[in-house]
Amino acid sequence: MDPRIDILGLSFADLEGKVATLLPGGRGLAGKVYARAFEYGRLDLEGLGLSERNRRSWEEHFRVGLLGAGRRESEEGDFGPTEKAVLILEDGAEIECVLIPMPVRQKSGSSRRAEGRPRSTLCVSSQAGCSMGCAFCETGRGGLRRNLRAAEIVSQLITTRTLFGWDPANIVYMGMGEPLDNIEGLLGSLAVLTDARGSAFSWERLTVCTCGKAEGLAALREAAGTRLNLSLSLNAGDDATRNRIMPINRSTDLGCLTAALRDWPRRRNFVLALNWCLLPGINDRPEDAREAAAFARSVGRTVFNLIPYNPGRKPIAPAPTEEEIDRFEALLVGEGCLVKRRARKGGRIMAACGQLGGPGAAGVASGTAMAEGETARVAGAANETAVAAGAASGAAGATDAAGPLTGTEIGNL
User: Fold this and answer.
1) Are the C-beta atoms of 132 and 140 separated by less than 8 Å?
2) Could you give the residue ranges of the DSSP H alpha helices within 115-213?
3) CB-based contacts of 91: which residues, under 8 Å, 6+ apart?
4) Which member of 73, 75, 83, 96 is catalytic?
5) Is 96 among the residues known to form the active site?
6) Which residue in 138, 353, 374, 384 is the catalytic one?
7) How far apart, in Å, are the Cα atoms of 225 and each of 145, 230, 407?
8) Distance between CA atoms of 249 and 208, rounded to whole angstroms?
9) How do residues 52-111 score in pLDDT, each as one tens digit?
10) Catalytic: 152?
11) Quick check: 193 and 216 in contact, CB under 8 A?
12) What is the pTM of this model?
């Protein structure tokens, strides 16, 4: 393992502190070195007026740790290609990240969909493997190898930008692993990604998805405040079903989750995203919709992301048909819920929800037809339509030029 300090795991303040200790007199260059590390993906010391001795000192103490490039696959879709990259860590472990295309946002006052620039979201991993063991997810089948360091999480952005030209507008922690099971790496990476001297992502452009660890939610709440977006993998509104498909529920049941989410700090436009992987015969009954709606009402303003199950190596259910998805969506809407239907993306390359860490595209049959857009309807609550248009997972209000994630965009992930 390389003993040098990886700049991708440091905030600018952290780098300044380490330079002051290790390289007396080098603190004045820290800002340029830091900015170049994130822009170019390398330790770039050219043109800084360094003596050969000082240059060697920087190189002896610091590095910019790009990940190794493994397999890369792509699947075309309505909004452009969904791309998956297998990246290789320093110890040989493999992780996966996915670039998800988003609809082109219309300019204000324009009816022409083509106006504006293409946008995408990067789905990053927080662990190599996963210990949660959710029955519908490929990642957990191999267990947990280890947590990722903050630098390795951030490097997924810098590596794919440097090697592949990926330039995402948003980042979601929805790849391999449970982010709240790696709270140190999660919080460290969030601090780096939002540092104005480096990647400079606004908090509203970042979303953490969790299966629900109450202690992790408390730590995240303390560190992130009100601007971070939150998404909960719910999938069942009763403890018996959730215990069966999500073992985490045996230690953090729905009652504990409700209490933790009630305490989550709410900005004016915050909307908690509730992810529901639709499993025919398991969580698609009328009583499932009623229990899901009751949970949603107990935690404040929410939006359901209705996700068709993507079968992997050992399916626990068939992929839902469009008719089955329509029926359960109607049940949720009938209960007064705001629902967004996820378009199917990346199923043929094992890049869809619940498929990361699988064996690749060969031999895997799953529903891969693109859904015909997404829908956002709520019975008897027209005022919620405005919420759907301007917020998803609480994402509206960013100040960066590209603008925050919108409800339509979250629904199309």
Assistant:
1) yes
2) 150-164, 183-193
3) 1
4) 96
5) yes
6) 353
7) 30, 11, 21
8) 18
9) 999 999 999 999 999 999 989 888 877 788 999 999 999 999 999 999 988 766 555 544
10) no
11) no
12) 0.83
